Amino acid sequence: MSVKIIIGYLRLLNRVLQQEHIDLSKAVAPELWHDFRACLENPDEQEFDVERYTLLLQAAQAYFPRPITLVLAEHANLQDLGLMGYLASTSLDLEQALQLLQRYYSLVFKQTNLEQLSVQQFSQYIQIVWSASYCDYREMYELNLALILKIAQSIVQDALVPPQMIQFGYTPQMALYHFEKFYGCPIQIQAGQYAIRFSNQILQAKSIAADQQLNHVLSTQAQQSLNSMSSFEAQQQQFRQKIQSYIEQGLLQQEEVLQGYVAKRLHCSERTLQRQLKSYQLNFQDILDQYRLEQSKLYLQQGKSFSEIAERLNYADQSAFGRAFKRWTGVTPKQFLKL
């Protein structure tokens, strides 16, 4: 799975790196840094996914004594969250902002196939919850949790009452006391689920820039975007899955030219295949790399040798596989097994 994020996340990270005078170009793979810069310069033509963004966060962490996710949240503004940020700021109160957050949370991403957020209200408290199925997205989950608090603090007129509880779906890489200080409440760990809980008294906290007319216009725009995205992504996902299934078959049959094999199975030329991929905003090499990454992690966990994995994934040798794996993840296969 490849989930694209909006440009605001990249601009936020870039802003923090510039303010702290940090050059991350030597700490990450050249291709990763090139794609990051290219997307910043041409956001309408380039896309960036969560997997690569988390690699940048992991690399940036080495330059900070505190969790990079909290540093980013402290520097964030509503504009970084795009339409979602403007919807929150024009809401009448925090209750309306949370309702809109639940409805349009997926607009923070360019695809809707990430776990959905849920706002649950009880007699004494309200909590925002979402499941977390992908350990590789841990930093992204932490960042989004911190951004929810940041949004709430930014839009209300008076000081926000601290949360009653924060729950992490994965144990963070850094000590919990950093997070407890940031949130001002205890941190719990429950595998697979993130949550933030507030007392119900915060719901009536008034927004600084409440504008119901503008909020209605923005909500209509958000719903149109969501409808458009959902329709396109359903077709995109179906085509992606079809390509991936043929890639899998081609690897099993040890086909030398995978793209040619896939085009043949689709009864078209390679040029036509390229046009079809472009129409769905997909790239053949990205789909192949994603499949190889997921399979290589599975094979490593199953205890298969590096040479066997290289053969199964159609690499020239295990060194070529090792280089590709480090380019994807930032670590070697041996280091991955020790994580």
TrEMBL record:
Keywords: DNA-binding, Transcription, Transcription regulation. Residues 241-339 form the HTH araC/xylS-type domain. It holds the Pfam family Arabinose_bd. The keyword Transcription applies. Coiled coil: none annotated. It comes from the Bacteria. This is AraC family transcriptional regulator ligand-binding domain-containing protein.
